[in-house]
Specification:
There is one protein chain. Helices cover 61% and strands 5% of the residues. Helix 3 packs antiparallel against helix 8. The chain starts with a strand and ends in a 16-residue tail after the last helix. A hairpin with a 2-residue loop joins strand 2 and strand 3. With 357 residues, the protein is mainly α. The strands form 2 sheets. The protein has a two-stranded antiparallel ribbon. Strands 2-3 form a two-stranded antiparallel sheet.
């Protein structure tokens, strides 16, 4: 577990001057230069109107985060760079790279994949955070805290707190809207980015491990992990009486050994990503790769939730909210497979003619 990697200072000393780095400072100036360069490059490749339509929304959101979001996270030492947040960025980068590689194989250019990736990532991030805030609303809106006072905690995504399934509806809506604007085949896009999403999920789960969230139950296996005092599983074990209440002589005691459920989930997502890539040449219809993932991931999630203890049963059932959503996704996967079975198969790729003897 490594919650905070380092801090970014709010101000820097340059040529004897103390200049603001965050907010309306040097970082925003660098961002503006990068934005202009990106728009100029995309405009040269696709036309300025198309470039503005595809890049302006995500660039505007990122600029707003630099100008207003980052200063709100300043804890007195600067903006903390969390292991969780770093892994989210790594997840977005790796997933986008794989999607670019797969997109080129079917004739989708890199600029299109980057634009899609930015919109889907931001929309998914918003949905995953909203789902988490709703599920754990008491943590963000305790009695006596106003809505305005809760906003910094709600926006502090880098400190952890996302529910993967919360990203599904918002990310899907963003992908549909992107495909409609660009007049691109939605199912082909879904097949293209599905393995990249899983690679991103695998890296994101490592971020969960660094943050200590999404933890498992007690375990006596050789690879069981102990998390430090003050971590989410530590608070959970104290609340359930598995550890003594904090005192001067035991405040530093770690947790009892537990399953590293985050690493199980990371390995699971990586295996599914490899399976999706391997299945791609055998898919007879656009959408089949996505349908495969929509079938297998909920099944593995239901199993992994049996190991996790951080989510209580929901809606009067013995299942967690993630397991209930997994069941709904399995129903959706069944409907998608049925619909795909009614579509004509893809034409086989052209074969090279044999040279004359």
């Amino acid at each position: 577990m490594l919650t905070t990697l380092f801090h970014i200072p709010s101000r820097i000393e340059l040529a004897g001057l103390s200049l603001p780095l965050l907010g309306w400072g040097l970082l925003l100036a660098v961002w503006a230069v990068i934005c202009l360069a990106a728009l100029a490059w995309a405009g040269w490749r696709q036309g300025i109107a198309t470039a503005v339509r595809s890049l302006a929304p995500p660039l505007a959101v990122s600029g707003a985060i630099i100008a207003w979001g980052l200063p709100a996270l300043d804890d007195g030492q600067g903006v903390p760079i969390r292991g969780y947040g770093v892994m989210l960025l790594a997840a977005a980068t790796a997933g986008t790279w794989l999607s670019i590689v797969r997109g080129r194989a079917v004739g989708i250019d890199a600029d299109t994949i980057v634009g899609l990736g930015l919109e889907v990532f931001l929309a998914g991030l918003i949905g995953a955070r909203l789902f988490y805030v709703i599920e754990y609303h008491a943590q963000f809106f305790p009695p006596g805290r106003s809505l305005l006072a809760a906003i910094p905690a709600v926006l502090n995504i880098a400190a952890g707190g996302l529910v993967v399934f919360g990203a599904v509806p918002t990310a899907a809506l963003a992908a549909w809207w992107f495909a409609r604007r660009r007049r691109l085949p939605l199912l082909q896009l879904a097949d293209c980015i599905a393995p990249g999403l899983l690679v991103g999920l695998a890296l994101g789960r490592i971020g969960c491990f660094l943050n200590g969230c999404c933890y498992g139950g007690l375990c006596d296996l050789p690879w069981a992990m102990r998390f430090p005092a003050g971590s989410p599983p530590w608070f959970d074990q104290v609340s359930r009486g598995l550890l003594p209440q904090p005192a001067a002589d035991n405040a530093g005691l770690p947790t009892l050994p537990i399953h590293p459920a985050q690493l199980y989930a990371a390995i699971d997502a990586a295996i599914l990503a490899c399976l999706a890539v391997a299945y791609t040449p055998f898919a007879r219809r656009d959408g089949a790769v996505f349908a495969l993932i929509l079938t297998l991931h909920p099944i593995s999630r239901i199993v992994l939730e049996q190991i996790r203890v951080d989510e209580p049963p929901a809606l009067g059932t013995p299942l967690s909210i993630s397991q209930l959503v997994s069941l709904l996704l399995l129903v959706a996967a069944g409907g998608l497979w049925w619909w795909l079975s009614l579509q004509p198969p893809k034409a086989p790729p052209p074969t090279k003619a044999e040279p004359p003897a």
